[in-house]
């Protein structure tokens, strides 16, 4: 016979099963979160202050042909970072249910697998027979979410930023690449740094940025992630080096070097002798 202890194995360690009730048309399982800390959804700072609780109703995999409804009691946390606009944020059920999702991740995985192997309408019919209440349109939405999750590139803490032209001298954009894998991550509109700021706010784990000498990029990086190290890319590094060498040479040499006529004639004589010597060698061969 099922009880709270046996059901506990099917949920995350930080989720505690508090009650289990079976009705004629469904099974209701109440769960309470046991988390002690969470990261702010905006600034990613850690908080351990429980501000309040809230409830989420999530559909899970069916049990004995009956729909399973989870009533999850989770926490709201308070962010103490003064500059953060997100003062109160809700706990996210990582690895179990996505943000704003009405079904558990494993339930959505099953729906997506059935939809891919049949069709959306046929998949919805099979799901309803199994005890998962879903429509064909919902199957399509879940598949779209799965594709979007797969297409999102997770970058390392080293990125490269540069501009590129949609149409040269007319429309430009910004491309961001992973500094470790060298794979492109995303393409942003414009190169004035506005879109880069928005992207960096959601990726504050970045520690090193490789960029060109554009002031807009430097300003955006300094404002959002001031502790990040900004490094010149290879092209501009060599360009800066050549300019430095040129300036050093110019500072040591005079602006004009005058060559007298005698020195010029002596050089010409040397060149003529060398040319004659080479021609004799060729003729002897």
From TrEMBL:
Residues 259-285 are annotated as: Disordered. This is Transposase IS204/IS1001/IS1096/IS1165 DDE domain-containing protein. Residues 159-256 form the Transposase IS204/IS1001/IS1096/IS1165 DDE domain. InterPro entries: Transpos_ISL3, Transposase_DDE. Residues 265-285 have a biased composition (Basic and acidic residues). It comes from the Bacteria.
């Amino acid at each position: 016979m099922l009880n709270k202890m046996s059901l506990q194995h099917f949920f995350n360690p930080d989720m505690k099963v508090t009650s289990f009730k079976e009705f004629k048309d469904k099974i209701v399982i109440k769960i309470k979160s046991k988390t002690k800390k969470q990261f702010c959804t905006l600034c990613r700072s850690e908080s351990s202050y429980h501000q309040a609780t809230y409830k989420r109703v999530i559909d899970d995999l069916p049990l004995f042909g009956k729909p399973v409804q989870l009533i999850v009691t989770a926490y709201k946390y308070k962010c103490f970072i003064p500059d953060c606009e997100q003062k109160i944020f809700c706990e996210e059920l990582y690895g179990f249910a996505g943000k704003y999702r009405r079904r558990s991740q494993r339930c959505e995985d099953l729906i997506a697998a059935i939809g891919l192997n049949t069709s959306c309408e046929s998949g919805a019919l099979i799901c309803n027979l199994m005890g998962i209440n879903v429509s064909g349109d919902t199957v399509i939405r879940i598949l779209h979410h799965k594709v979007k999750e797969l297409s999102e590139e997770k970058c390392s803490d080293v990125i490269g930023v540069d501009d590129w032209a949609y149409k040269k001298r007319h429309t430009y954009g910004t491309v961001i690449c992973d500094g470790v894998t060298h794979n492109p991550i995303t393409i942003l509109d414009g190169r004035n740094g506005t879109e880069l700021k928005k992207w960096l706010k959601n990726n504050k784990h970045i520690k090193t940025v490789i960029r060109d000498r554009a002031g807009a990029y430097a300003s955006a990086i300094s404002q959002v992630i001031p502790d990040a190290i900004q490094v010149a890319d290879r092209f501009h590094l060599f360009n800066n080096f050549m300019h430095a060498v040129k300036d050093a040479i110019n500072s040591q040499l005079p602006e004009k070097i005058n060559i007298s006529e005698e020195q010029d004639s002596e050089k010409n004589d040397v060149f003529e002798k060398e040319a004659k010597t080479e021609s004799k060698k060729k003729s002897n061969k």
